[in-house]
From TrEMBL:
Keywords: Signal, Transport. Belongs to the bacterial solute-binding protein 1 family. It comes from Chitinibacter fontanus. Pfam families: SBP_bac_1. This is Probable sugar-binding periplasmic protein. Part of a binding-protein-dependent transport system for a sugar. Residues 1-21 form the signal peptide. One of its GO terms (cellular component) is periplasmic space. The keyword Transport applies. It is found in: Periplasm.
């Protein structure tokens, strides 16, 4: 009798639990070593709050595959609870009428007070929070294997002229200078850093934020394109199609000396047990020390009917913005917290530098959105500009002048 009672009690508790436990399906594309470690922290915290985590991971750096998968799900009326959506495309999804509000959580927790406006503005649709930010990635980094540079007696470059001297010295010493992944989003990631370094902040803003035709097709852009194409002889024959994290592995394993990539690459170095300042260096891409291309990851919430699912979304929103999550996630991800009220003492020198530079560039005007990572253009425009950059990189017969005209035409895509 006693056992039966206990048994019944256990069953009813389990039932109550299963009614309460919300299943939270989250779409992301964090599948590389460092990314997966960072994503695992979110799953752990959500499960700790009694939610059931349903992982909707779609591999493919930069998230293009993930966005295709998301469209299919939303169009069929079956969206996930949340998806990793960033920048202006949050507004595009808002316009579709499919996003749900997390404004009550944001108000209760005072998000407006702990997020800089450059972050919080993007998270709101018609004044209401519909997305929660998790980090700030810096894109204009150059990752360096110092041992290989030493072998070639080459200097860590701070200007483009120095970069090409270093690359030539490495090549002469039989060392692969540049680890490169030839995919449209990666081409544009590198191109964007070249544009910032060669053209400067005002040029960058005019070209990629204001989409000014004369700037996109003008002489500075031609110089940017020529500089970008000069990188190609320093890449290897197998670069086409290579995933970014495999390129990072080349720097980690001493197969190549440098890579241009955002600081999600740092997540790979750390996951491989490498120490910044010793095994690898993070330096601003040539000519960009006073600028910061920001890329903010965030999760937008979809409108769901089920009350337990909505509770799960609110838990997710609260978790994403919690100081504990923002710290542990970003220690693994390579980025810095989106909240500006957190201590940075657990972060390494790259993270600390990023946080200092983020604040300094915000104050002095060098803070620019990474268009290659969805922070500046509408998605259709961005796709067209990607294509122009990639076509130029791959077609050795195309002149920089023609490519500049193509860029200006692509930027008109709506
Ligand atoms: C970026 C994204 C990062 C990282 C990277 C590689 O666009 O913001 O979080 O995942 O792509 O996939």
């Amino acid at each position: 009798m006693r056992n039966l009672k206990l048994g019944l009690l256990a069953t009813s508790m389990a039932l109550a639990f299963s009614v309460q436990a919300a299943e939270v399906e989250v779409l992301h594309y964090w599948t590389s070593g460092g990314e997966a470690k960072a994503a695992a922290e979110l799953k752990k915290m959500m499960e700790g709050k009694g939610n059931k985590w349903k992982d909707f991971a779609v591999a493919g750096g930069g998230g293009e595959n993930a966005m295709t998968a998301l469209k299919t799900r939303v169009v069929s009326g079956n969206p996930p609870a949340a998806a990793q959506i960033k920048g202006p495309s949050i507004q595009e999804w808002g316009d579709e009428g499919v996003l749900g509000s997390i404004d009550a959580v944001a108000k209760k927790e005072g998000w407006d007070k702990v997020l800089p406006p450059v972050v919080s503005n993007v998270m709101k649709y018609k004044g209401q929070y519909v997305a929660a930010p998790v980090n700030v990635h810096r894109v204009n980094w150059l990752w360096v294997n110092p041992e290989l540079l030493k072998k070639a007696n080459a200097k860590v470059p701070t200007t483009w002229d120095e970069f090409f001297v270093t690359a030539a010295a490495l090549q002469k010493a039989g060392i692969q200078p540049l680890a490169y992944g030839g995919q449209p989003w990666q081409d544009s990631t590198v191109f964007e850093s070249v544009a910032l370094g060669v053209g400067g902040v005002d040029f960058y803003k005019k070209a990629f934020v204001q989409l000014d035709s004369a700037t996109l097709s003008g002489p500075t852009m031609i110089k940017v394109l020529e500089t970008y194409k000069k990188l190609k002889p320093f890449t290897d024959k197998n670069a086409a199609g290579r995933e970014w994290n495999l390129a990072t592995s080349m720097v980690i394993n001493g197969k190549a000396a440098m890579q241009f990539m955002g600081d999600w690459a740092k997540g790979e170095f750390l996951a491989a047990g490498k120490v910044p300042g010793k095994d690898f260096l993070c330096v601003a891409a040539p000519g960009t020390a006073n600028a910061f291309t920001f890329n903010i990851d965030s999760f937008a919430m979809f409108k769901l009917k089920d009350a337990s699912a909505v509770k799960g979304q609110n838990d997710l929103a609260s978790t994403l913005m919690s100081p504990a999550f923002q710290e542990v996630f970003n220690l693994n991800k390579g980025s810095i917290p989106a909240r500006t009220d957190l201590a940075m003492d657990k972060f390494d020198e790259c993270g600390k530098k990023s946080a200092v530079d983020f604040k300094a560039t915000a104050a002095k005007g060098g803070l620019v959105p990474s268009w290659a990572h969805g922070m500046a253009m509408k998605s259709a425009t961005q796709g067209a500009v990607y294509d122009a950059v990639t076509q130029f990189w791959n077609d050795d017969k195309m002149s920089a002048k023609d490519a500049a005209m193509k860029l200006a035409a692509a930027a008109k895509t709506k």
